Amino acid sequence: MNAISQSNFTHEPGVSARTRILSQRGEPLFIASWTGVVMIHFEVNAEALQRNVPFELDLWEGRALISLVAFTMRGMKPRIGGRLTELLFRPIATHHFLNVRTYVRHREESGIHFIAEWLTSRLAVMLGPSIFGLPYHYGSISYDRNLRSDSILGHVMDVKNKSQLAFKAKLDGPAVFQACEAGSLNEWLMERYTAFNSAGGRPKYFRVWHPPWPQCSAHATIGNDSLLKTNWPWFNDAKLFGANFSPGFDEVWMGRPHDVI
Predict the structure, then answer these.
(1) 1 in a structural domain
(2) Distance CA 70, CA 35 (A)
(3) Distant-in-sequence, close-in-space partners of 236: CB < 8 Å, separation ≥ 6
(4) DSSP label at 200?
(5) CATH number of residue 148's parent domain
(6) What is the spatial distance between Cα 22 and Cα 201, in angstroms, rounded to a whole number?
(7) What span, in angstroms and rounded, lies between the C-alpha atoms of 180 and 213?
(8) Which of 3, 41, 113, 181 could form a disulfide with 104 if both were Cys (CB 3.0 to 4.6 A apart)?
């Protein structure tokens, strides 16, 4: 895994997030690896997006933004319990994800809101909405990184309605990973540590923590996008404006669900 200089562990969003998650008893609940992370960013109509989001949108200079986040989660297990709980969680420990997320605020805390998520574990799809308030869908997903061309190909299909997403992300240059510049748009997009969700009509949140993202910029192209336009007609007018790639982390802390009050 690519190292980040020790000085970056004082990056303000991550420091605050670590303090928040550890301030609650029993946190974190799970640990896991997140690997091969591609984030593709779009600007969309704020009014149309807000109608799909039950939290206040967090805007960047007046712009409403969403991101497609493609990655693989590996080895999720409870933080406590040792080998036994690790074995119990093996059926849902490793799978591909595609998140469609936007950026929100609740009271004084900024975070993300998952508009929808596709993943390759049927059991996790059953558990996510009721426990974490997550909008899970079962999908057929493949991600392939071509090291020779420094590109990542992704294909996602909703198993239920057969709508699809195909993308390609090519690194803008040599794979030199570094933390986001403080105050930058990349930091605003990537350094988010609280998820506010409401699948099933029960608003919940959970927190995560990891070191600052080791990332580099990428150029993304979208092929078949019926997965997006079938679910959200306003996506027809979305403007793709950037992408990032990160090798991810060996260990991410994930907190327990809490009711939003």
Answers:
(1) no
(2) 9
(3) 229
(4) G
(5) 2.40.400.10
(6) 27
(7) 7
(8) 113
* Domain extent at residue 219: 6-259
Residues 6+ apart with CB under 8 A from 201: none
User: What's the structural domain count of the chain?
Assistant: 1
Rounded distance, CA 117 to CA 135, Å?
6
pLDDT for 82-122, tens place per residue? 888 899 999 999 999 999 999 999 998 999 999 999 999 99
CA atoms within 13 A on the CB side of 68: 28
Are 39 and 190 in contact, with CB atoms under 8 Å apart?
yes
Dump pLDDT digits (tens) for 129-138.
Answer: 888 999 999 9
Is the preceding peptide bond at 28 cis, omega within 30 degrees of 0? yes
In a domain, 133, yes or no: yes
Query: 240: Cβ–Cβ under 8 A, 6 or more apart, which residues?
Result: 40, 41, 42, 220, 222
176 is a domain residue: yes
